[in-house]
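Encode chain A's predicted structure.
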Amino acid sequence: MFRRTLPILDREIARAIAIPTALAAVLFTAIFALFHLSRIADVTLDVVLSFADFARLMATLVPHFLSLTFPLAFVFGVFVAYGDLRASGEWVALRAIGVSLHRAIRPALVLGAIVLAVGLALSNFAEPGGKRRLKDLIRSVAVDVLPTTVRTKVFQSLTTGVLLYVGDRTSSGELKDVVLIDQRNVDNARTIFATTGRIARLEAESGGGYAGMTIVLRDGVIEEFRENQTVERRARFRHLELPVDLQGELGRRTRFLAEFEEWSTPLLTNQIAALRKAGEKVAPLEIALHQRFAIPVAALLFVVMGVPLALAGGGGKRSLSVVLSVVLVGSYYVLLRTSDGLAGSVPSWLAGWGPNIVFAGAAVAVYAWVSRR
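Encoded structure for chain A:
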């Protein structure tokens, strides 16, 4: 039905936009994923993940990546398609037979509406759900994998103030030649040497589930230090168990995922109402709620601004299209982050939709300028 209703010109322009958009979306998403590798390693306590566990973690981030890369890829596709139309001389021919800018922009607006719909689904449902699953997976993977994947012959940070060194590790997870530096209590720092040990997962006494983690050490020596790093006390042991607040550490390392980012839009709306009733400050949450709709709508603004710029000479070369796409979308996200800092200073709706208002004004000005040429 779509092919029958759209004239040939619209179908060709739509195809010219869709192909580079799809390719750019894959490429940009892969680049974003590479930039997140170090963060994934950090929040999983640097454990050695299997390919399946790593793929599961990255899959939960795909909606987040796409919410950023899809608009960028779409703008790139618009610049490529309309830039090629101008560079090949086809735009001059189309203008000669009466095709106006208003007519030429139609297929881009149709695709922009599709990008808008996809963006709304991503920002309001898929992305919050993905971030919620990411936190759960990080905790599950780190807890399940850590006991049998502790790295050997390097100091590994388990939690804040706890470093673990293992000389060797058997396939069953038994640790050999263990050194543990515990500086959680600065007034009672200690270094523990043990012949063998293991990391054990503790199950809750009632109801099952995860209760905590402990490091079990055997046949070793504890050295406790004073503030000047001199040994205050030395004691031997046959069996020693040290609890590790692994869940708390994982919570600290995943604080970059704000709790409200895990809430679906209906839940976020209800939480805002409850907090406002309780007299709490809700401006940051209200801005985040407005942005879940404002960011997808920006796709149409990118079309209204991008198509005239490409036809006016801003496209043609693929490298220039990439640069213009990054500049256009990057400028929008800079305004977006700036508006986050206006919480409480201006109405929440204005902070949330402010970048769109600025871009709408710029888009109308550019469109009017090109139309008169």
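Confidence is low (pLDDT under 50) at residues 1-6.
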